[in-house]
Every structure is written in C-alpha cells, then in structure tokens.
Amino acid sequence: MKSKFSLLIAISALALLALCAIQAYLISNTYELKKTAFFNETSNAVSEIANDRELDSLYDALIEVDLEDHLADYFNESITKRQVVERFYRNADTYNEQYMQRYEALQLQKELGYEVAYRQNLLSIVIIDYPNTDTIFPIKDNERERIFGQKFKTGISRSINYARTFDTNEFIDRRGDSISISSYDFEVRTTQEIQVPNWKSLVLKRMWVLIVGSIILFLFVIGLLYYSIKNLITQKKIAEVKTDFINNVTHELKTPLATLGIATKSLRNEAIKSNPDAFNNTLGIVERQNSRLQKLIDQVLTNSLSAEELQLNKEQVSDNVFFNNLLSDFEIATQHAHLTVLNKVYSPEVLLRIDRFHLTTALLNVLENAVKYGKDQVTVTVITRLVNRNYCIEISDNGMGVSPTDQKAIFDKFYRAGNSDIHNVKGLGLGLYFTHQIITAHGGTITLKSIENEGSTFTIKLPL
Ligand code: ADP
C-alpha cells in the first residue's frame, strides 16, 4: 500500500515535471516566433521609411557626386585612399542632419509606439578595372562604418537591407603629359541596420497573456495535486486510525464482557449463592464491569462532538473547592495503593467560570492517565497559578513520559502512543482528545511537555 502510494506521488511529480517541460518548450517556441515577427514588422517599417525619395537623393548625392569626385582625384594621384575615405565621411556628416530630420519625421508618421535606432553603414568601396580591383574601403585602422543615422548603443543590432551601387564614372585624366577623358567602374556596398533597445520586454509584453495564463494554470495544477495528495494522506491516516480504533474497541469490550460472563455463571453457582459475602463480591464485579461498559460506550458516543458542538453550562466555582473535591474523588476512585497526589492549588481562592461537569471529566482524563501510564509509585502534582489573566493548571506525573513524535499527535482523535508497552494499558485514544475539546470550548489551551521515562506535565490555561 505504502509503495503504491509512493509510486503514485512519484508518477504525479514526473507528470508535473513533464508538463512543466512541455510548457517551457511551448513558451520558448512562442517567444522565438514573436521575436521574429516583431523584428520583421520593425524591419519592414524602417525599410519603407529608408526608401523615401528625399533620403535616397541624399544618398545619391553622397555616392554619385561627392564620392565620384574624390575617386577622380584619387585617379589623378592628388589624394590618397585614406583621404578619399575621410572626405567621404566628412560629406556624409554634412548630409546626416538633414537625413535624420527627414527620417525621424517619417518614423513619427509610422506610429511604431517604441524606440528604434537606425543607421546606414558602409561596407566597401571597390574600384573595378577588370580583372583587377582596388579596394578603397575597408581601410586599415578605420573604425567608422556609419554613413547616416544614429550612433548605436552597445547591444545587438540587426541588418535589415543590403545595397549595392555599381557605376561607371568619366573623369578628366591629368595623369601623364596630356589631359584626356578616362572612365572607371566602381562598386559601393552598404547595409541598413536597426537597434531596438528594449526589444525583449516588448516581445514579452506581446506574450503576457500566455505567460500569466501558463503560470496560473501551472500553480492551479500544483495546488490541485498538492490538495489531492494531502487529502489522500489524510484519508489513509483516518482509515488506519479507524482500524486501530475498531481493534481497540473490540478489545476493550471483550474484557468486561468476558468478566461479566464468568460473574453471571458464578452467580448460578450454589456455593456462591449460599455465601452472602461471595455473592455480594460477584455482584460488585458485575456492577463494576457494567459501569465500565457504560463508560466505554459513553466515551465512544461523546467523541463525535467537536468543540463547537459542546454545550457548556458555565457557573461560578471556587478553585479551592473544585480542586479539593476533584482530587479527593480521584484518589478514592483510583484505589491505587502507591498513589501520592500533591495538591498545590493557588491560594487565595479564585472564582472560575467553568462547566463543572465537563472540566471535571477533562481533568480526570489527565489524572487517570498519570496512573494508567505511571510507574509502580505514582506521584501526581497539581499546581495552579495566575499568569497574565490566565488560570494555569499544571498536572505533572513521574510516569513513562511521551516521545517527542507522539507528543505532536497526543490530542488527536483515537491517537495512542505507538509503544507496545503502552498498548498493554487499555484505552481508546479518546481521553485526551475529549479533554482538548473541553478546554478549547472554554477558550483555553492545553499543552504537553514530557521526557521519556521521567514524566509528563500537562499545562492547561483558562482565560479568566
Ligand atoms: P487512552 O488513554 O484511552 O489511550 P488518551 O487520549 O487518554 O487515550 O491518551 C492518548 C495516549 O497518550 C495514550 O495512549 C498514551 O500512550 C499517551 N499518554 C496519555 N497520558 C500519558 C501520560 N501521563 N504519560 C504517558 N503517556 C500518556
């Protein structure tokens, strides 16, 4: 049964883990899809902006007018490659302000709703003279690539477009002795890039329903599983406790019934009938067993009452009188040869508002246990004192004590400490449960401090 139960919990935990993994996989997949969709959407919007005629004309002016002039100078050997690049970037800077103004105005019209940084980078400038090529850019020790646009922050940027301009340019060739018209082919490659600083939170924002829904669903499933397993454990415990209880009741009823059987048989016996002492003695046994059976049945019946259902009949009672009566009745009823009861009830007298009958039952359960679970020489000490407007009753014994594990459950219904020695003592595990119910109904508390083989102290606090 136990292994079946552990298997069930293990399978449930595994299923939950699998569910968690599938959910994580689905969320990460959706995240990738949403990310791609987000960047496609942004790229398309920015591409549309960058294709604007005014922006194109600035680009054309930079490449097809300025750069071509610089390349002509380079051919005429009046400037170096590095100077071509420097001049190119200087021209780009003069156009950039106008370029950005137009770009930002267009971006505003698009109403994207989030910040997008844009730049256009130079990839290469190559002069082509088949089959030879002369690379003007990239050039050694040049870190700049941006032609137009904003400076990017550190972080991921994305290319959205590549552009290739191929052109043939005629120029006045001043090389050599004579002036002539020559031409050259050149190719310029550029790329457009975007950067969205907070793209992660934007993508996650688009997924919030899915994420929140998954978390709620997951928590719900965990809660459901936890509740089901907890319920199952409780049901199992109750079933075990009930079986124990039925065994105990059967055992408890058998003994007085067997004694009653023997006693009634004895009463038919002529020898006993003719001896009044023996007759009365046997009758006494019948009476005692009868009252024991009555008590057992009462205990079983009253255990179904909870603290709310207990009807208290409170009255004003003097503590001294109450305890004197209780303890002397207890001593007489117990008929234990080696019982010492130490009465240390608080003096001066305190008036308590209690249900005399129920509180007597509650305290008698504790006192009787001191004898039931005590050693040969039983000493019970009852101390009462006033602590912070609470009337404290301490009942200590020098008995076998209760283990720390048993202490936790000692006030539970049907609970009996799991020691085999203890099970030689009769009981249903209802006495302390009922005591606890009565004390709770009085608005009080009951606690136990115990050391095994040394003794136990029950502390009851009743509000005044
Ligand atoms: P019962 O005595 O009918 O078994 P109780 O509810 O009175 O039921 O007690 C529950 C269990 O607590 C007992 O079975 C016993 O193991 C343990 N117990 C109670 N009082 C004492 C005590 N004074 N010393 C040691 N064990 C005790």
Count of helix runs: 11
Can you list the ligands bound to this structure?
Answer: adenosine-5'-diphosphate
Class inferred from helices and paired strands: alpha+beta
- Taking all residues together, what is the mean pLDDT? 88
- Major sheet details: 5 strands, antiparallel
Number of strands: 12
Low-pLDDT segments, ≥5 res: none
Topology (SSEs and partners):
Blueprint: H1 2-50, H2 53-75, H3 81-110, E1 117-129, E2 132-137, E3 146-149, E4 158-173, E5 180-195, H4 199-206, H5 208-268, H6 270-274, H7 276-302, E6 315-318, H8 319-334, E7 339-344, E8 351-354, H9 356-372, E9 378-387, E10 390-397, H10 404-409, H11 431-441, E11 445-451, E12 455-463
Parallel strand pairs: 7-9
Antiparallel strand pairs: 1-2, 1-3, 1-5, 4-5, 6-8, 9-10, 10-12, 11-12
The chain binds adenosine-5'-diphosphate.
The site of adenosine-5'-diphosphate has 23 residues, from α9 and α11.
